[in-house]
Each structure stands twice: as C-alpha cells, then as structure tokens.
C-alpha cells in the first residue's frame, strides 16, 4: 500500500485531480467529505460546533449552515482554530478506518485541503500539489457563487502558494484544459505512483543509478559530462555560461528542497528512534545520501518505510522512482 497526500489552494482543481486518480484505481480519503460527515445532523461533532459557535450556525432544518459558519471563521484565525480542533480529530479517526479497509496493494490518496496549514505534509511519502494562478482561482470561485470578498477571504485563510509549492514532490499546473490536466495526472499515476506502491510492497528500492560512495559527491558527474563552457562562454551543448550557471542554481535549489522534505519525513516517521539525521555528500546528482544516528538501526529501518524507504544491505533506499535516496545508519558516539 502507498498513501500519498493531495492538496492545493481553493479553486486550483484538486477535486478534478482526485476524481481522475480514482478513475485510474486509487482509493480516496476525502478530508472535506469526512469533515462534512463529522458534523452531520445528530452527530457529536455538530453538537460541539453549536456549543462553540452558537445556534446561529444551524439552518431551519437543524443542519449546519455552512455559509453562516464560514462567515464566522474564514476571517478569524482564532475562531478557525477552534473549529479545526473540533473537526480535525474526527476526520483523522474516520480516515484511519478507511485506510484499514483498503486493499494491501491500494494507492490511497488523502485529499487534504489544509495539509500544509496543519503541518501534516511530512506524514506522507509523496505530496501532490495542484496549482493555478490567483486570477484563475477567483474566476472559478465566482462560478461557484462566491462573491469576490468571500473568495478572497477563503484564499487568505489558506497557506501562500509558495508554501504549498515547497511541500510538493509533484506539482500539477492547472490553468489549461481538463484534458491537459488529466494527461499530467495519468503520467504521474503510471510513471510514479504505480511503481512506487509496487516497490514498497515488495521492499524493493527504485534504484536507477549506482549507489553513491559513502560521503561521496552524490553522482552528479563531471563538468564535461554536463557540457562545460569553452572559449567565448558557450558550452559544447549550445548554452551560454550564464544559462548553465542559472540551471545549476535551480538544480541545487530543487535538490535542497527535496532533501528538506525527506529529512522532515524521516524525523516524523522515526520519531524518538532518531537522534539526528543529516544530508551528506555534495554535487548536484539525482541521489540524496543521508545519515541517521540511532541506537536502534533495525527498528529505524522498519519505521523508515513510512517515509518511502525500504531496508537494503546498504541501509534504507527510496522506493520512489522519482526520488532516489540512500539512508545509512550509524550509532551515536559515546564519550
């Protein structure tokens, strides 16, 4: 089984991505749907909401008046926090029950609008983020019947786009046609998610290149391999020195972001088993090499599966074909 997270700003098209993944065979855990069920008429969740916010959040039939509640919480961070404290634990319990009922080979997609805001991204070995520009999202929200002020308030209540982008292992732009979005989703499903799940289930690393030497340069290759600049500042592959420098900076930034996400996942998955974890080696190759300091390496290797790494003779290696990584284990040095 592979559990991944799907998120995106309101109006970005997250529901369309979720529907396409379900059509391809995914099992969906929809946080919005679970949240609605948690505060349905007659539930303890609805009683708790009414106790916190008053009977004005009920409609004449006794159900939750979502627009009325939205006006109270979307512009008030403290009120929103009180609502989340009621709803989120109930959603997590319902989600756990759905996962327990899924097939052993399932790809479970957790559709979580507030994944970044609640600090839950590190709980999943892969995060999909759907993205669209503010103007596109505002237009879509207007089609849903929201006023510009209501749409702006809901967008402001969510994390900035840059923060969601930083959490993304896969970024799905969605400003074009639905067919174009589906094509991107289908490619991610076939090339990334299906092999990732199969690798996890088989305890098989997704190794695409030789393992890096311990503490080595990360497999980036020499400057000649990448097309070094010659006389006049133009490389043999046609790019200028400035273009290669810019590409190098972008690659280094992407690598650093990927390393940060993996470190966060390992800290989350290993918890108290982990004394420290650090990225080692250098270069700009696709491999990430990390070292975990732990007194219990066998238990740590088992726990690292939740971060998408499987045990191997070298330590733990990524099962994700899009993120090659090696984690070695060392014991703490005692004085």
From TrEMBL:
A GO molecular-function annotation: dephospho-CoA kinase activity
Positions of the UniProt region annotated as Disordered: 205-243, 312-335
Enzyme class: transferase
ATP-binding recorded as keyword: yes
Origin: domain of life: Bacteria
Signal peptide (residue range): none
Binding-site positions, ATP: 11-16
Gene3D superfamilies: P-loop containing nucleotide triphosphate hydrolases
Annotated compartments: Cytoplasm
Enzyme Commission number(s) of this protein: 2.7.1.24
A single BP term in Gene Ontology: coenzyme A biosynthetic process
GO cellular component terms, semicolon-separated: cytoplasm
Keyword line: ATP-binding, Coenzyme A biosynthesis, Cytoplasm, Kinase, Nucleotide-binding, Transferase
Pathway as given in its UniProt record: Cofactor biosynthesis; coenzyme A biosynthesis; CoA from (R)-pantothenate: step 5/5
Catalytic activities: 3'-dephospho-CoA + ATP = ADP + CoA + H(+)
InterPro entries cross-referenced by the UniProt entry: Depp_CoAkinase, P-loop_NTPase
Family: Belongs to the CoaE family.
Function text: Catalyzes the phosphorylation of the 3'-hydroxyl group of dephosphocoenzyme A to form coenzyme A.
Protein name: Dephospho-CoA kinase
Lineage of the organism: Bacteria, Bacillati, Actinomycetota, Actinomycetes, Micromonosporales
Gene name linked to the record: coaE
């Amino acid at each position: 089984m592979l559990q991944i997270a799907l998120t995106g700003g309101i109006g970005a098209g997250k529901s369309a991505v979720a529907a396409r993944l379900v059509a391809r065979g995914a099992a969906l855990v929809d946080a919005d749907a679970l949240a609605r069920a948690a505060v349905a008429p007659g539930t303890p969740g609805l009683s708790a909401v009414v106790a916190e916010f008053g009977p004005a959040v009920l409609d004449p039939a006794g159900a939750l008046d979502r627009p009325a509640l939205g006006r109270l919480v979307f512009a008030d961070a403290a009120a929103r926090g009180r609502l989340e404290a009621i709803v989120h634990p109930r959603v997590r319990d319902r989600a756990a029950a759905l996962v327990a009922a899924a097939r052993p080979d399932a790809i479970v997609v957790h559709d979580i609008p507030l994944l970044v805001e609640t600090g839950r991204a590190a709980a999943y070995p892969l995060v999909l983020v759907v993205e669209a520009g503010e103007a596109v999202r505002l237009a879509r929200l207007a089609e849903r019947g929201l006023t510009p002020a209501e749409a702006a308030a809901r967008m402001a209540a969510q994390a900035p786009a840059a923060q969601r982008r930083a959490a993304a292992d896969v970024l799905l732009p969605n400003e074009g046609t639905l067919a174009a979005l589906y094509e991107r989703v289908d490619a991610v499903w076939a090339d990334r998610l299906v092999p990732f799940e199969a690798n996890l289930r088989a305890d098989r690393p997704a190794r695409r290149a030789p393992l890096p030497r311990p503490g080595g340069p990360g497999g980036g290759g020499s400057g000649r391999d990448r097309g070094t600049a010659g006389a006049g500042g133009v490389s043999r592959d046609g790019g200028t020195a400035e273009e290669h420098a810019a590409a190098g900076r972008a690659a280094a930034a992407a690598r650093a972001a990927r390393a940060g996400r993996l470190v966060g996942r390992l800290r989350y998955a290993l918890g108290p088993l982990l004394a420290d974890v650090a990225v080692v080696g250098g270069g700009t190759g696709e491999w990430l090499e990390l070292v975990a300091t732990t007194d219990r390496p066998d238990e740590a290797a088992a726990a690292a599966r939740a971060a998408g790494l499987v045990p191997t003779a070298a330590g733990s290696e990524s099962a994700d074909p899009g993120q090659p990584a090696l984690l070695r284990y060392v014991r703490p040095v005692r004085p």
